[in-house]
TrEMBL record:
Annotated catalysed reactions: Fe(II)-heme o + 2 A + H2O = Fe(II)-heme a + 2 AH2
Protein name: Heme A synthase
PANTHER family reported for this sequence: CYTOCHROME C OXIDASE ASSEMBLY PROTEIN COX15 (PTHR23289), CYTOCHROME C OXIDASE ASSEMBLY PROTEIN COX15 HOMOLOG (PTHR23289:SF2)
GO cellular component, one term: plasma membrane
Enzyme class: oxidoreductase
Function per UniProt: Catalyzes the conversion of heme O to heme A by two successive hydroxylations of the methyl group at C8. The first hydroxylation forms heme I, the second hydroxylation results in an unstable dihydroxymethyl group, which spontaneously dehydrates, resulting in the formyl group of heme A.
Subunit structure: Interacts with CtaB.
Pathway(s) this gene product operates in, as recorded in its UniProt entry: Porphyrin-containing compound metabolism; heme A biosynthesis; heme A from heme O: step 1/1
Range of residues in the leader sequence: none
Membrane topology: Multi-pass membrane protein
Places the protein is found: Cell membrane; Membrane
Organism of origin: Sphingopyxis macrogoltabida (Sphingomonas macrogoltabidus)
Membrane-crossing segments per the record: 20-41, 106-124, 136-154, 166-187, 208-234, 264-285, 297-316, 322-342
């Protein structure tokens, strides 16, 4: 018979498994990209306010009966979006928008489980290298925080307005992209460790800090464009409705208010700051190439080119939903590739 004394740490001696940890984090990173994709569809189909309550446990299941669907539909009918925009919507149409918001929330929960369950297993097996336990638990906690931010975002659209706050939407998206970048960085730490147990953790370089700042601003602008539906204000490129600087910018409340709230101005800055971000990323690719890297520079150039092309196509197609979604997904992929590239740059000491 086994007693408690035999269940000592010596049963599972500390044996770090960095290769397995790296594969696990890459898989979670792919799930995060899937969540971002569905989030884009949810936004573009105006589905985000279809579920008016936050039920982390019971909300896993959608309504299973006609009475359940009617009850959810009645809750939706009480909010301004229905009264001012979707009055008269059919139950079948409501089920369509409900599906995307439900799937988005389910995938968010799946990301949390995909982090927590393997993390508990690896911790029990004492397979986590020294110094990484708190980081991994922090990433798992960030998923919970992301869920809370998501509900805080939804709540902003349930009273007195027909849409969510674009500031809260930006925080929700940027938190997801930060989680994605952290997963990629940590996965590359583990992959490096699997190749060379004596390898040191690469630092974030000053060049990397500049690249992050430039890209962060572009991602923030992109989130505001989405939250304000600013992509719809112009469907021409490079001009905006025949003008380089668009007509229609509302300066009446001051420059700061216009910069943070005016869809014409935010769209304008987003489309031209993209060239600054592209230049920064291409210079990063050149720097890595000069240091002997091959994979990261090639991926950076390819993803930057794809993202720029998709951005233009999103505009000229009048916000074609699937092109716009692909633009958002490629943006998430770009964040992942940039994180991997900055990790590689840190190894070169640049």
């Amino acid at each position: 018979m086994t007693d408690a004394s035999t269940l000592s740490p010596s049963v599972h001696p500390s044996v770090p498994r960095p290769a397995a940890l790296a594969r696990w984090l890459w898989a979670v990173a792919l799930l995060v990209i899937a969540v971002v994709a569905v989030g884009g569809i949810t936004r573009l189909t105006e589905s985000g306010l279809s579920i008016t309550e936050w039920k982390p446990v019971s909300g896993v299941l959608p309504p299973l009966t006609e009475a359940g669907w009617l009850a959810e539909f009645e809750k939706y009918k009480q909010i301004p979006e229905y009264k001012e925009i979707n009055a008269g919507m059919s139950l079948a149409a409501f089920k369509g928008i409900f599906f995307w918001e439900w799937l988005h929330r389910i995938l968010g929960r799946l990301v949390g489980m995909a982090l927590l369950v393997p993390l508990a297993f690896f911790a029990w097996r004492r397979a986590i290298p020294a110094g990484y336990g708190w980081r991994l638990f922090g990433l798992a906690a960030l998923v919970g925080l992301q869920g809370a931010i998501g509900w805080w975002m939804v709540a902003s659209g349930l009273v007195d307005r027909t849409d969510v706050s674009h500031f809260r939407l930006a925080l929700h998206l940027l938190t997801a992209l930060f989680l994605l970048a952290a997963l990629v960085w940590t996965a590359r730490d583990f992959a490096l460790m699997a190749h060379d147990r004596a390898a040191t953790r690469p630092p974030l370089t000053r060049t990397g800090g500049v690249v992050i700042a430039v890209l962060f601003f572009q991602l923030l602008l992109g989130a505001w464009v989405a939250g304000l539906n600013a992509g719809y204000v112009a469907s021409t490129w490079p001009s905006m409705n025949g003008h380089f600087v668009p007509e229609g910018i509302d300066w009446s409340h001051g420059a700061w208010f216009a910069f943070t709230n005016d869809p014409f101005l935010i769209h304008f800055i987003h489309r031209w700051w993209s060239w600054v971000a592209a230049l920064a990323l291409l210079l990063l690719a050149r720097s890595l190439s000069r240091r002997g890297a091959r994979t990261e520079p090639t991926l950076l150039v390819a993803v930057v080119a794809a993202q720029m092309t998709l951005g233009i196509l999103t505009v000229v197609t009048g916000m074609s939903m699937w092109i716009a979604v692909l633009h958002q997904v490629t943006g998430a992929v770009l964040v992942a590739v940039t994180a991997a590239s900055l990790h590689r740059l840190g190894r070169s000491g640049a």
